[in-house]
Amino acid sequence: MAEEQQPPPRREVVTGLPRAARRRPPAHTPACSEITEQTTLGATYLRALMRSQLRAAMGALAALALLVGTLPLVLLLPRTGSGPLVWLALGVLVYPVMWLTARWYVTRAERNEQDFTGLVTDPAEDPGPRRPDWTGSGRTGSE
Questions:
Q1: Which of 14, 29, 34, 45 could form a disulfide with 41 if both were Cys (CB 3.0 to 4.6 A apart)?
Q2: pTM for this one?
Q3: What would the 3-class secondary structure string for 14-79 be?
């Protein structure tokens, strides 16, 4: 007895927009609009950014003052009063300390800005090369 072979059932294809292309309404108002409209909340966000940038700058300045500013006091000690150690410390060793302090500050400032940008942008928007303009001039940072 020969069995009749039936063709496999037809597959159904469901089409629709890809998940990435669907726009969901934001769960909250993006803070970017709060800053643009100059509301109290937007001013608070900007104050927080400026406070964190100031804290990083004061930390870098304090480290530099502590490491480099006390160097003349150390060199005034009777044992290290003169000689090649003084010139080595003042002429060579100070610059790597200043470079490392500056590098730390720039890294910290960039991290503060990235955290702020992550806070104020809408998570549903695709991140692009354009940076928002917080000055209120209406121009973006990429123009």
A1: 34
A2: 0.58
A3: CCCCCHHHCCCCCCCCCHHHHHHCCCHHHHHHHHHHHHHHHHHHHHHHHHHHHHHHCHHHHHCCHH
